[in-house]
Amino acid sequence: MLKPAKHINTMDRLVPEIFKVDMNGFENLALNIFYLQSKYNPVYAKYIDLINVRPEKVLQITQIPFMPVQFFKTQKVIVYGSPEAEMVFESSSTGNTGISKHYVSNKELYIRSFTETFIQNYGQPMDYSFRFLLPSYLERSNSSLIYMAEHLLKSSGKGGFYLDNFQKLKHDLEKDIQTGKKIFLMGVSFALIDFAEKYPIDLAESIVMETGGMKGRRSEITRSELHSILKERLSLKDIHSEYGMTELLSQAYSKSKGVFKAPHWMKVMVSESTDPLENIGTGKTGQIKVIDLANLFSCSFLQTSDLGKVNEDGSFEVLGRSDNSDVRGCNLMYSPEI
Prior knowledge:
- The protein is 33% helix and 22% strand.
- By secondary structure, it is an alpha/beta fold.
- The protein has two domains: 14-63 and 265-338, Luciferase, domain 3, CATH 2.30.38; 109-254, Rossmann fold (3-Layer(aba) Sandwich), CATH 3.40.50.980.
- α1 runs antiparallel to α2 (23-40) and α8 packs parallel to α9.
């Protein structure tokens, strides 16, 4: 059996540091991961070369180049020498944009990431009865959200998945209420609205979380409009939200008003939409960039297509999608796999 390359051993040793990193140590750890990925991730290295950035000149976190997430649609984004992928997460395909594929060579990184984030925000999974209304994800294979939901359900031992049987969902929720179970209802946005409109129910003592996802299923509405409808129909004070994507191994949660807080190994920044290398300050709208240190064996520095702003305390808001397609280095997105 071949021994792992030295850089893989080095990266393996970084795993414990990722989940214990604090605000003071984040920048140094992020820079260390950047230097490794800029050298050993061929796709990221090529992108950095195309935009004329020299890794040795990057001395602070604001100078790190962020790779467009679209590259996951055409390239195998993985650190050279990584173990064989244990999982391949795939996104849905919207229009003719293709499917993102995230090759995960260490599934324990993902499990630890979503488990610790859930516990930090909501406590132990075993305390909840999970009801998952995720039809668009159940209808396809290799969804990272379904993988997480299945793991939470297994940890709890209470709850289930629902495709389109709203009547059964209402029955099971009412049974949970009658038996005093703590309810955690997570659903894709269009399905939650469909359910709430057909079967309004008092879930005032429950957690209801929307994961986004209206495109192509219902007319687009804002997050605030979505939350207003759900709060009225389900008798709720607040609607919770999740911010995550196929290309990330971490997610952020919002407990109220669409203000998201990321775990301490994840950081959100914003840049000018016309120039992803130009960072902008707090309180201003720009294109969301994510540092996800759990993406150790793929790419931890990703430029998304989402518009948002970062608040003074590090929390952030998602305000829409960018229609800007002029991404520097974008020819790499359409080139054959390296």
